[in-house]
Structure formats: structure tokens, C-alpha cells
Design goal:
alpha/beta, 12 helices, TIM Barrel
Amino acid sequence: MKMTFRWYGEKDSIPLSYIREIPGMTGVVTAVYDVPPGEVWGRETLESMKKACGAAGLEMEVIESIPVHEDIKSGGANRDLYIENYCKNLELCAEFGVKCVCYNFMPVFDWLRTELRHKNADGSDSLSYSHDDFAKIDPANLHLPGWDESYTPEEMQSLIARYKNVSREQLFENFVYFLKKVIPVCERVGIVMAVHPDDPPWNVFGLPRIVSSEEDLDRLFAAVPSVANGLTLCTGSFGAGRSNDVVHMAAKYAAQGRVHFAHLRNIKYTDDKDSFCESGHLSCNGDLDMADIVCALVDNGFNGYVRPDHGRNIWDEGGKPGYGLYDRALGAAYINGLFEMSAKRCR
């Protein structure tokens, strides 16, 4: 297992020197953030990032993510061009030592919450999703936390309209088409693809979701059997779907060699619908048994990358919701302890 930490580049409020001081930290998970989806990244940018990470004593082996252009997802006229560019980015990343790419195949919204700073009983704040609040959103005039800064309501409507005639089956076919072009390149350059599950794992605004459950994963891996076609086991995303047995899924896909990356976080269900709040990482803080999940990974041979996923904002820390330093550093220490105990128990 390699412990990593999300880093948003030089503009991140958390410097690499702070990340390096977290016990057990081996590297960062990063990307090129100033190039639009579908375009080829600059070699100079990757070289600069790699050099900065190395100078801080950190590896840059995981990219999250190379965004998949909406034309690829929707089966648009230019999808082959964008897939070709995607393959060029994979080749570039491999030149700089990248071994794993986390990505998603969610139409338009690759995450969705109804509140970014939900106030918790302990005084911290965190991301949350309320079923009732989501039901009040007017699809014809969308205003969404975290997305209003990225798109105008008109742009959102235009993006959603592209999927008006794209069924769940068609989206899956587009996904397989993409992977059958990309995976041979991955095999050649030594990179594995780790798809991130739908977040949350259900349809939103009529947009289909196809990576939400064990059944979805089985179908995906059967369609493209290469082990380079793997998974980011995001416990919070799968866990939001209450029918998902995350411990079982961790064991099953680790045993298959499919879990290349793990996003480990906990959530607390807040009603009997779909609502949840992101909590501290410990098992006792939420409704997921993080210890059992880690044991399932270790028992079944997992040896991939891990990062503490979304944390709370604690100790009056501001910054990007879910991506403060303090709680994720605490989460990393806790997760390291779980892996150490699990590994010793397995001997």
C-alpha cells in the first residue's frame, strides 16, 4: 500500500512541504488543471510538477484525473479525436512515471452535494447531501453548490440536453468503446485505469449512471477484461448507495486485482432516504466499517494506492470544502494504523 494525498498544484493552499510531513506519506495525487477537457497536456507542465514533487520527497504516480470529454461520454461526432488526445495524455503521463489514472464516466456532474459546509454536532463542517433539499431544486433553473462557479445555468442546461437521447445502455456502450481504444495504450505504457464510482450512485436530473453497484462493475469488467481496466474503490461513493456491501466489494475486487486505488472516507446516514453527511474517518464516526473494509483489502492482496478522501473542516480551517489539511492528515494516520494492524493480523 502507498499512502498518497490529493494536491491541486501550485495554487493549492496546502504546500507540498506540509504533505511530506504527514506520517507514512509517499506521494501526491494530482493533475493538470488549467487545460480544458479533451486537449493534450503540456510536457513542460508535467515536468515542472514532477520536479516539484521530487524536490519535496514525494512521488507523482497517480493522476486524478484526465477528464473524459462529454463528446466521448455522449457519443458525439468528435469522440474519436478526443479519445486520440486522451491516449496522448496517457503516453505523456507515463513518461513522467505515472502508473495509475483515476477518472470517471459520469455525465456532466462528477459529484453532487446539496451543502458544502454542513455544520456537524462536533463543531466541524463537511459536505452533505439532503434528499429533501435536492428534491426542491428546479431542473429548469439549476443552482448547485460547487457548480455555480463552473457553469452558468444556461451552460448546465446545454450540457444536460446533450444526453436527452442517451440511454443508460448507450452510455455503457460509449464507455466500452472508449475503454477498448484506451486500454491497449495503457497496457503498452504501463498505466492502469481506475474508474471512480458514481457520486452519488444514482441518476440525477435524468442523467444515467453506470458505475454505481457490484452488478455495474461485473458488467464493465466482463466487457473489457484486461486488469488495466480497474477500480477506484471510493468507500463514500459506494457507501451512499445503501444496498452496496462495501466490505464484500472491497474483498471481491481486490482478489481480482482490480482495485488499483482506494479513496477511504466515512459517511453518516441522516435519514431513511438517500441523505448523508461526510464524517470523520473513524468507523465510529459514520455508518461504514472502515476497519472491516481495510481488512478486506489486505486479506485479498491489495497493494495499490490509497488516499484519505474528503475530510471535515476542523480547527477553524478554511479553504476548499472537503480538502483541508488537518482532518485528512488525521485520516491518513488512522488509515495507516488500520493497514498496519490488518497486515500483522494476516501474517
